[in-house]
Write a structure and sequence with these properties.
The chain has 160 residues and is mainly alpha-helical. It contains 6 helices and no strands.
Length: 160
């Protein structure tokens, strides 16, 4: 059987998109559509049926898959990397992320760190960069342990 490595697909399509993924706020359905277009074009060039089960395409090599990452997963990991990096650096982007976090937390009306809640309960919140990351973290069941409350918005006003 003539089989080409998935490496050309990775280098030709996914690396070109990977630069832009962390800045985008697309949802999982949009990434499924985008990935469908890419795979329909690339798989026949690799002499693979374009209707091959996606579990084989995205599955691990150890189990006979091709180990191609899904764009939604790549985007979520890259966003998490940027999120943690900018917060650790405490640069301007980190400050903007903190502002966005406190805004989303204020909209949701919660007192704990917003990423430790399930996104599905607050799906009505407007879609943006932070909510996109929150959706990914919720789907992958990642949580944060933050010893101090620097992200928690508390009511600083008291009524007398």
């Amino acid at each position: 059987m003539f089989f080409l490595s998935p490496l050309p697909l990775y280098h030709n399509y996914l690396l070109k998109l990977r630069f832009q993924l962390p800045a985008l706020s697309l949802n999982k359905d949009n990434y499924d559509k985008l990935m469908s277009v890419i795979l329909k074009a690339a798989l026949p060039r690799m002499h693979i049926n374009r209707n091959t089960a996606r579990s084989i395409i995205h599955g691990p090599l150890l189990l006979g898959g091709m180990a191609l990452p899904h764009l939604d997963t790549v985007q979520g990991i890259d966003k998490l990397h940027l999120f943690l990096g900018h917060l650790r650096l405490q640069d301007d982007n980190g400050s903007l992320i903190k502002i966005d976090l406190t805004y989303v937390q204020l909209l949701c009306g919660v007192t704990q760190f917003i990423f430790n809640y399930k996104y599905e309960k607050f799906a009505w919140v407007e879609w943006g960069w932070v909510t996109s990351l929150w959706s990914f973290l919720s789907r992958t069941e990642l949580t944060f342990h933050i010893p101090d409350t620097r992200f928690v918005v508390t009511n600083g006003y008291t009524r007398t």
